Amino acid sequence: MGPYLSQPNRNKTTTTGSGKSVIFAASEMQGWRNTMEDAHIHRPDIDQDVSVFGVFDGHGGREVAYFVEKHFIDELLKNQNFKDQKFEDALKETFLIMDELLMTPEGYKELNNYKTNDSDDSYAGCTANVALIYKNTLYVANAGDSRSILCRNNTNYDMSVDHKPDDYLEKQRIERAIGYVSGARINANLNLSRAIGDLEYKRNSNLRPHEQMITAFPDIKIIDLGQQDKFILMGCDGVFETLSHQELLNHVNATLGNAPVTEKLLQKATEDLLDQLLAPDTSLGSGCDNMTIILVYLKK
């Protein structure tokens, strides 16, 4: 059996909601893939003036993405730096603690509960792209190739950069960890250089977590929000295969129009975009992945 279905699964699961400063819609679609390996979080008003959203794109199985979806918010809320409103440090620590939890006997057992196969070991991982909004400040933490785009003056302002093995700094870290890059893949295998999970690449006891061949340590971009900022578009890498960032924003803006923004309108925007991005067949490969979109409208 290949990686694709004979016909795509177009069914969508969409959640909408609102908070003090945001309205959101989060929509996911399995598409052409045999299984769904994406997960996501959406928590407006998680704390005083704080909202958190995240996309987790699984690879090698769904289990790590599901694990992070279940535990990320709880660990963030327990984090002392989060309580002290040191959100950059809190996000970094929460990304890393996901790996720590995965390595515990309890984490190993939980992973097995999420798996769709009967193998004893999990070689799964997931990318992670998390947006935290505190008052008028946006933090985006990224490990991997899921992305966040801010619609600023109706133009894309990119809030994350993909982590690929052949990027100069990423390749240096990989080689220091006694790995190699071949065909833009680590050890000729994985085409990502940062992710949660993928624990077989993180077993060098002489290296700290951010020094391993693959690391969960995120890059974080911080920006002050203003009247020129309309919404944040988040998605797994499948969302960005066929349209440019500007084309994606144009599509959303065309759906929103000039009408008052509601949860129902945001749901239509996310679901219409998923239909637009889905490939008509699997001949080219792009537009065939699982797709998850979170659209966060910023109230003025």
From TrEMBL:
Primary residence: membrane
Domain PPM-type phosphatase: 23-298
Tree of life domain: Eukaryota
Reaction equations catalysed: O-phospho-L-threonyl-[protein] + H2O = L-threonyl-[protein] + phosphate; O-phospho-L-seryl-[protein] + H2O = L-seryl-[protein] + phosphate
Compositional bias (Polar residues): 1-19
Bilayer topology term: Peripheral membrane protein
Keywords recorded for this protein, A-Z: Hydrolase, Magnesium, Manganese, Membrane, Metal-binding, Protein phosphatase
Similarity section: Belongs to the PP2C family.
Protein name, per record: protein-serine/threonine phosphatase
